[in-house]
Amino acid sequence: MVRDGTSQADRALPALDPAYAPVDGRDTAAYLEYLRHYARQLRYFGLSNLPAGDWAPFIEGDISSAAAAVAAQDAERERRRLLAFADDVPRPGGGVAFRRLLDDLFALVLRLDGWAALGTGALRFPDVLWQQVRGGLRADLQLLIGIHKAAAELGLLAPPPAGTEVTAEQVLALEPGLNLEWCPPGTASWVACVAAVPAYIPAFGAGAHDASVPEAEKLARALEYLRPLVESFPRTLARMAEVAADDLQRTLADWPRHEPPMALLLTFLHLFRHALDSLNGLTARHLEYYYQEVLRLRPRGAEADHLFLTFELARHLESYVVPSGTVVLGGKDAQGQPLRYALDEDLRLDHASAEPFLTVHRTPEGLLTASPAANSADGLGAPLPPEQSGWSALGSASHPAAAIGFALASPTLLLTEGERTLTLELTLKATPGAEDTLQTLDLARLFRVEVSIAKGWLALAVREARLAGNVLRVGLRLSAADPAVASYQREIHGGTLDTTWPICRFFLVQEVATGRTYGALAALTLASVRLDVQVQGMRQLQVETDTGRIDPARPFAPFGTQPLPGSAFSVRCAELRAKALTSLTLGLDWLDPGPELDLETVYAGYVLQPPEPGEKKPLKPGVKQPLEPEEKQPLRQVSQVTKPLPVTRGTFRVELAVGLGPVPAAGAGSTRLGPLFTPATFDVPATVLSTGGRARPIDTVRVRLTAPQHGFGHRLFPRLQAQVVLAFNT
After folding, report:
1. Bridge partners (DSSP) listed for residue 694
2. How far is CA 669 from the centre of its chain?
3. Which region ranges are annotated with the description Disordered (predicted)?
4. H or E stretch covering 112
5. Contacts for 173-178 with beta carbons within 8 Å, 24 or more apart?
6. Alpha carbon distances (Å) from 271 to 21, 246, 277, 278, 447
């Protein structure tokens, strides 16, 4: 079995390598670049023996020279230079450093564009640049132009220091300008491309226009946007130089179209490498002399070869001891002799192993990938190719995108039915600049939200996601057709969360996010969470009247068939027990006698007293005739009074008074309906939630009839009817 490990060779100091400090460390690319600059200093004399330019065209027109111009670039030196300017921005005089940083970034873009123009179809390094431009470098340049315009508009742009070779303004005003690959598709010219980019004022913070905000603070905010650019442009240059070096070797080895003078020069450089290698051998000879003659160190004597072995215990054994001195075969040496190795100590084996291997990797673009099986070809468990003996211990950018986010667990999420609205308010603590970055993001598309249900997870659409100060407000909704939110179970929902409550989890959509987005989110600290839920249309209720449990889906008499004061019914919802209630609405859908017969009309003929026996009023068979009181009183209606809500033993008691009262001055033509047709909404007293220091579960609403004295008159009607008949027939 082949396993990677550590060795002295892996831990060797670079300074001890004879090649670390060569006398002349320039390679062929560096010499060609040197000759290209040197040729510009040599005057060329034509056939008339007069100066006719310089020798540069003889070198610059060659394909190997074009590849060498890019291969000789030191991307790391460019990066360190840009980082030095970026580090100076927060210091005194940071405005000049900010200006030099902008100028150098634009100058680097100009050089990248110019080097790409050197290439022909046979060179591959220009394609690398345009791939990087289309992959994100174009957006970086647009951001750079926007920040430059904003700095100029805000008066934060210092004049260019003396001796600046290329300024940002020169690059922006170039004619015909940079390659249009740098611009959005369809752009007509470089000038139009620059003009289309707006000034990016938010980069300088919310107080960009506020004169009381120090200039240093504004520049520091903008610097956070420029730091990713300090990495992305040099990284592109490094990739171009790497490919250009391959182009150079290919054109030196196999390119039949070099001009004769250039072919002679390339041949000389190839032969010169022998003399250069001999010269650079001086370093090794100096080290050898220093160690052996000055320090008097001598090489160690020969040691027996040794190695490390990995054993795997057979499945039918629980444990096994391999004794010291056990001989194992290690193949054959260069002379064909067998290699034998002996264990130098006892080794006890069992089935313990390290697994699984999980990795999280941050890509150069700033996003994260994750691997549940890092010791595999794709990070998901595919077997490694036979020629590959190891795997990426720190992850890889080719692995799947990581599931980044957070989860909330709460009994408040136990929502079984109806129209369910969830509102989360996340109070955040952020570093300077992070809130400004979040303000520019489409937060509703940035997150994928899921809730736990009985069969797994249900994705929810984010209806609202906005940042107000340091509070992120997120609105979610489940329709009546969506399944119930269920408790978390590891067997169904996966993961290792330590809870049995329902889960609402948020994932960062990395297809929408950028490295700068993740950086802003990573800088956030969650201070507190508030979860509000609203539910409308709950129907899975347990309803009981004085006569027993009934089906609320069918019409029923809530106060019995002959209601009297004290008659009551209760509505129980088990889901309420897990909620910290703030308000509750009980909607009663009455079996209305019809729009033309409201409660006022139904009870219009009822009187408090029967007519006197002496009054005679003939009744006509088959004709309904309303009964009127002796005195022409106004018509009567049913009214409702809601009293304060006492709380008794964890049960709500809603006191509803139903009585007969005078109709307002509108008289019999009043269209006001009885209040029993209106849902009763009431606030839950705060004292309900804290009795004896513990929350009191509440799941029942009880409605009791308190007035009038004789209810709806069911029991009075026979006696009143008899009195009325006697009165009319006396």
Report:
1. 691
2. 62
3. 610-638
4. helix 94-118
5. 174/110, 178/109, 178/110, 178/113
6. 22, 20, 11, 12, 61
| C-alpha neighbours within 13 Å on the C-beta side of residue 324 | 3
Measured distance CA(511)–CA(191) in Å, rounded: 31
Residue 665 pLDDT:
35
- How many whole angstroms separate alpha carbon 151 and alpha carbon 201? 8
Question: How far apart (Å, rounded) are the C-alpha atoms in residues 364 and 322?
Answer: 47
- Contact by Cβ (8 Å): 610, 724: yes
Q: How far is CA 494 from CA 183, 358, 626, in A?
A: 46, 16, 71
For residue 648, give both structure tokens. Answer: 């008794």
Q: Rounded to two decimals, what is the model's pTM?
A: 0.45
Relative to beta strand 651-662, strand 700-705 is parallel
d(CA 291, CA 103): 49
Cis peptide bond prior to 708, omega within 30° of 0: yes
Q: 228: number of CA atoms within 13 Å, CB side?
A: 22
Query: How distant, in Å, are the alpha carbons of 32, 64, 66, 76 from that of 28?
Result: 6, 10, 13, 19
pLDDT in tens, 79-115: 999 999 999 998 888 899 999 999 999 999 999 998 8
Separation of alpha carbons 359 and 346, rounded Å = 34
CA distance 662 to 667: 9
Distance CA(230)–CA(24), nearest Å, equals 30
Q: What is the pLDDT of residue 512?
A: 67
Residue 539's alpha-carbon distances to 30, 296, 421, 586, 656, in angstroms, are: 81, 95, 17, 11, 22
CA–CA separation, 206 vs 224, rounded Å?
Answer: 14
Is residue 489 within 8 A of residue 398, CB to CB? The reply is no
How many residues in the chain? 730
Crossing angle of the two packed helices 125-132 and 94-118, in degrees rounded to 10: 130
Q: Which residues pair with 476 in a beta bridge?
A: 422, 462
CA distances from 506 to 278, 369, 459 (A): 63, 17, 10
Tell me the two tokens of residue 234. Answer: 């040099």
pLDDT tens per residue, range 250-275:
999 888 888 888 899 999 999 999 99
Radius of gyration of the CA atoms of the chain, in A: 43
- Rounded-to-integer distance, Cα 679 and Cα 306, Å: 87
Q: DSSP string spanning 231-268?
A: HHHHHHHHHHHHHHHHHHHHHHHS-TT--HHHHHHHHH
Pick from 605, 611, 588: nearest CA to 677 = 588
Contact call for residues 682 and 584 (beta carbons, < 8 A) = yes
Neighbours of 712 (CB within 10 A): 21
